Amino acid sequence: MTTLLAVAADLIAIAILTFGVYFPRHRRRDLVAAFLGVNIGVLAVAGVLGSSTVGAGLGLGLFGVLSIIRLRSDEISQHEIAYYFAALALGLIAGLGDVMDVLHLGLMALVVAALVVGDHPALYRRHRNQLLRLDVAHTDEDALRAHLEAVLGGRVTNVVVKQIDMVNDSTLVEVRYVAAAAAAPAGAHLGPRMERVNAR
């Protein structure tokens, strides 16, 4: 009975996390299968380990091994890594728990709630992070910052110069900025001399 309750609680939690929080916000279909597969797989393995003499130590080792897995064929952003770890944590809490009591259910709810709040679109919604390639070799950081603020239409909070190519006259920068209150979608103001490499 306890096992069935744990499985049911895990299925409800991962369904809310994946179909109620992640996909409506980010619309990345491939990671839906990844989150579900990782969660159910960890739940099954943790359930077997929890019922044997190996105990929770090996289960924590499993968490450590799985935590270093990265999909080399495609980049996973930081918020997606958070969902990935949440799926792992939910499977382990449900699978390794001796009893599915209020504490375990509360911890599972806390994991889901952390992603609901931490990844909410309204949280710091004007703060942007972009990787840009400028068609100008900027060596003056103050001039670079002023140029970025003029083009992006926001207040630059941090600039990290990744690369300056004096031969091809280009600069690769990572910029964090606060967009104007009525800002257009990220990248809408990029002119012909600026290329958006990536945005987060």
Automatic annotation (TrEMBL):
The keyword Membrane applies. It comes from the Bacteria. The chain crosses the membrane at residues 6-24, 31-48, 54-69, 81-97, 103-124. The lineage of its organism: Bacteria, Bacillati, Actinomycetota, Actinomycetes, Micromonosporales. Coiled coil: none annotated. This is DUF4956 domain-containing protein. InterPro entries: DUF4956. Pfam families: DUF4956. Keywords: Membrane, Transmembrane, Transmembrane helix.
